[in-house]
Amino acid sequence: MPLKLPKIIGHRGACGYAPENTLESIKTAHEMGVEWVELDVMLTRDMIPIIFHDDTLDRTTNGSGNVADRDWEEIRQLEAGSWFSDGFAGARIPTLEETLELLIDLNMGLNLEIKPTPGKEVDTAEVALDFLSRVWDAHDRLLISSFSHVSLETAMDMAPDWHRGLLLETEWIPNWKEMAEYLAAATINIDGNACTRIQVENIIDFGKPVLAYTINDPQRARTLLQWGVDGMFTDVPDIIGEILRVIH
Ligand code: G3P
Ligand code: MG
Q1: What distance in Å separates the CA atoms of residue 248 and residue 192, rounded to the nearest whole number?
Q2: Can you point out the beta strands (E) in the chain?
Q3: Which of 245, 172, 174, 244 has its CA nearest to residue 215?
Q4: Cα–Cα distance measured from residue 215 to residue 71, given in angstroms and rounded to the nearest whole number
Q5: Rounded Cα–Cα distance for residues 233 and 207 (Å)
Q6: Which of 15, 186, 201, 204 has the most beta carbons within 10 angstroms of its beta carbon?
């Protein structure tokens, strides 16, 4: 099933308007007409896949310490909305399972970023793909990505036909082409604020779609579109979506 990439992917839901990686953030993206969201998945100590970005709980919840040191029973009681605004008080960290249910209900596409806590590169990919395989049928609207090559390799071994995105850090690995070939990456996902025109052209010449994270500035969005970037992750899909509507 060929990948049907969108031009706009809501980053961590629509995290400019709602607390990142929560069901509220996904619903906010959906209300804005966003078709795909990017979400980060990691494991609790007892191997429950949750939608969460940082290794530690401190920034986005009322808890503290490492996610990898807590069981789901503790994580599920944390509050994950007040840090963003009072209006989102009571938001929780969602499991991957309930998140997939919501996305399917809303008929949304997903870029699931495997974000393993240190040492959990294989386990996180295995558990996440296992959950996905039980419920997700629309593989034209699913992209599995990671900065971790081990996680991507695990995803490839488990589900070779599912689409994978190779995430490049701001500093590109010198062998990105070999890595993309080895992992049979469907997309190359780059830091769109730091990349150069030549870098984008190199990926286009290589023959893969380019996705750029995380673009919140309309002028940068225009520039990247001119360079040939295929899609963008954004915290503010209404603003960046408007640029695309004007240009196309
Ligand atoms: O997948 C794009 C982007 O989310 C990668 O960086 O740190 O925001 O997960 P980060
Ligand atoms: Mg991410």
Answers
A1: 20
A2: 8-11, 36-43, 49-51, 109-114, 142-146, 163-167, 187-191, 210-213, 231-234
A3: 244
A4: 34
A5: 20
A6: 15
Q: Tell me the best of 113, 151, 152 to mutate to test the pocket of ligand 1, counting ligand atoms within 8 Å of each CB and taking the most.
A: 113
Q: Which of 5, 12, 40, 55 to mutate to test the pocket of ligand 1 (most atoms within 8 A of CB)?
A: 40
CA-to-CA dists, residue 210 to 7, 40, 147, 225, angstroms: 10, 19, 15, 10
Residues with CB under 6 A from ligand 1: 11, 38, 40, 53, 113, 145, 167, 189, 213-214, 233
CA of 158 to the centre of ligand 1 (A): 23
What whole-number distance in Å separates Cα of residue 107 and Cα of residue 30?
A: 9
Ligand nearest to the CA of 216: 1
Q: 59 CA distance to ligand 1 centroid (A)? A: 16
Q: How far is the CA of 213 from the centre of ligand 1 (A)?
A: 7
Q: What is the pLDDT of residues 161-195, one digit of tens each?
A: 999 999 999 999 999 999 999 999 999 999 999 99
Q: Which whole number is the average pLDDT over 135-150?
A: 98
Token pair of 232, please? 């963008």
Q: Tens digit of pLDDT for each residue in 38-94? A: 999 999 999 999 999 999 999 999 999 999 999 999 999 999 999 999 999 999 999
